[in-house]
Structures are given as C-alpha cells and as structure tokens.
Amino acid sequence: MTDSSRPAAGGAGEWRGHARGSSEYRRILMALACAGIATFAQLYSPQGILPQIASSLRVTPDQSALLISAATIGLAVGVLPWSWVADRIGRLPAMRLSLAAATVLGFAVIVCPSFLGILVLRAGEGIALGGLPALALTYLQEEISPAHSALAAGTYVSGTTVGGLLGRIIAAPAAAVFGWRGGVGTVVVIAGAATVAFVLLTPAARGFRRAPAEHREPLLRLVGRQLRTPALLTLFAQGFLLMGGFVTLYNYLAFRLQAAPFQLPATITALLFFAYLAGTWSSRRAGSASARRGRLAVLLVSIAVMIAGILLTLVPSLWVIFIGLVVLTAGFFAAHSIASGWTAARAVVGRAQATSLYNLFYYLGSSVVGWAGGVVFTHAGWDATALAVAGLAAIAGCWAAAVLRSPGSSGATPRTPRLRESDGR
C-alpha cells in the first residue's frame, strides 16, 4: 500500500487522496492527458480543413464551420447531463463511457454521406465528449490529495491544449493525402488509442461516494443554488469572459494577417496554433505556483499577462504580434487552469454540477463572445476588437479580486483532509 492510500490519522478509513509522487498519482495524470488528447483532438480536428470539407460536400464556408459549432454546442449541452450520470455510476465509468461513445460517433462522421447527417453526428459527438471536461476536475478533486490538486488540475489542462493542437495540425496534412475524411479519420484513430490508454491507466476510483437516492438534491435546485453562490458565479464568469475573448482573437487574427500590410498565406497563418504550446507550459506552472502563492494571486497575474499579450497585438509588427499571441495564450490557459480547478475545490456540494456549469459558461463564452467579436471586427477593425477583449479580461480580473478575496474563497491550498462529499447530498 502506498502512503497515499493510507487512512487519515484519527479517521479510520477516511480517504485523503493519492499523494504526488505515488504511482497512482502519476497514472491518473498520464490517463487524463490521454483523455484530453482524445477529447479535444476530435472536437477541433475539422477546423484546419474546412475549405476541403466545403468543397467536397458542396456547402458554403460558413456552413462548413457549423461542424465546429455543432460539436461545441453539443459539448455545452452535454456537461450537466453527464454530471447527473456520474452521480449515479461514478466519475470514472462515466468518463470511460463518454470517450468510447465519442470515438464511435467520430468514426460514423467519416462514413456519413450527407452534410446534414454529419452535422447531427458532430452534435452527438460533442454531447458525448462533454463527459470528460464535466467530470475530470471533479475526479481529480476526489482522487488526488488536496495539497496537490491544483497542480494536478494544471497538468490536466496542459494535456487539453496538446489535444486541441494535435487535432488541428494532424488532420490537415492527412487530408492533403487522403481527403478530408481521411484527415478526420486519422485523428479519430489517435483518439481511440488515447481512449484505450485512459481506460488501462486509471486506477480504481476511491474517492467517489454515491449518495442514497433520498439524499440527492434535485438537479435544477442544486444548479440554482450554485448560480446564487457569489464565489462560484464569479468563477463561471472567468470561463465565459476569458474563453470568449481568447476565441475571438484566434478567430479573427488570421483575417488581419492575411490582409494588408502583412498579406500572409493561409498555410502560414495556420502555424499560429503552435502558440498553444505556451498554454501547455503555463497551465501546469500556474497549478504549481498556486500551491505557494494562492489561487487568487495566480489568477490575477495570469489575467494581467493575458491583457499584456492582447495589447501587444496592436503593434503593427509581425514579430511583436506573434509574441503577443504567445503571451496572451500563456496567460489565458494559466487563468483557465486556476479557475476550473478552483471551481471543483470551492463547491461544497454538487461538485460535478459545479464543474459542469463552469464548462457550460466556458463554451457559451466561446460561442456568444466569439460571434459578437466578429461583429466588432467587421465594423470597427482589429484595434477595437483587441481593446474590447482586453476590457472583458479586465472585468473578469476585477470581478475575481472583488469577490474571491473573502475568507471562504481565499484560494489557499488546503492543508487539512477533505471532507467526504458526494455530489447531490
């Protein structure tokens, strides 16, 4: 038995979570990295090959982009139902079911002949994929020692950035050789292998406690209570505002760089996605720093870094713009890793529902703010768009500073054993 598996002193049988350095801790982090790749590679794989998809299926560019929107909307819709499922069958079985279903639907996409059918399947794929972001941080909170949960959350988020990058950069060259179905299919095969690795690596869950049916709070009442909790609502707002601004910049920066005076070809602007690697590094660093400095301090610094990167993109120099993109990406993913992990730690009851709500707001921000940012860009240009996004980030930071400074939301890494808690009890 590892040290991480021993009962807490003074509490026979009380589960304290796997400690950093234990074999179970390492297996969980490797497994969630694989799950992040399986989820976000599939979610975004069509994004870099939309022109080929539009040509092959004889649809307009904006119609082809619905393949991304259908999946992300499906994911947003799916997170709360997956939290309900997980309360009844456990986090780990629900995540395994989620990834397996998404892989099956991913293969169905590449053989479906009609555009409408593909859209329906992509929406279903998104709903299936919603199980991973809805439950991963709750699973970490239950299985990892509280002293290391923030670092573990940051490591998980870094894995999701790798998945998002791989889906975009693998599908494109594969599609050039095998067509768009072959490009998407290649990513699905990789996602399937990652799903198998996730199933094999994860140790048996020990932190989940199923509440008796008579003790479960109705889902809508529980969600309403969380939406009335100022600290949780503030964390949900971080996801909405920061993700919305981040997606806006990535959506429309390529348009700026392909126009005068830069006039870069699309093959070059596609390389901007490599800036995601800055998020792979920063999300894990943020988790580590929060153990020393506290979550709030790291969150505010991360938002400030993001704003600095946004402002750098206003400079009419290609190299400065690229540096700005790297800086804002690092700042965004650091802030996201703190806010998402803090949501799971902050929820007193309904932890799976709280993390699901965070993801719901996160993807709503991507859809709503991403669209609104396009309106600003079309009518007022890049400078107005960048300043609007910087303003949203500033609002998020001020909101966090005002609400999360309260004693109950200090963000300090817990030093005491976690209480046993089942979502819905």
UniProtKB/TrEMBL annotation:
Keywords: Cell membrane, Membrane, Transmembrane, Transmembrane helix, Transport. SUPFAM superfamilies: MFS general substrate transporter (SSF103473). It is found in: Cell membrane. This is MFS transporter. The chain crosses the membrane at residues 28-45, 65-85, 97-121, 187-208, 229-250, 262-282, 294-312, 318-339, 360-380, 386-404. The keyword NAD does not apply. It comes from Gryllotalpicola reticulitermitis. CDD domains: MFS_NepI_like. InterPro entries: MFS, MFS_dom, MFS_trans_sf. Residues 28-409 form the Major facilitator superfamily (MFS) profile domain.
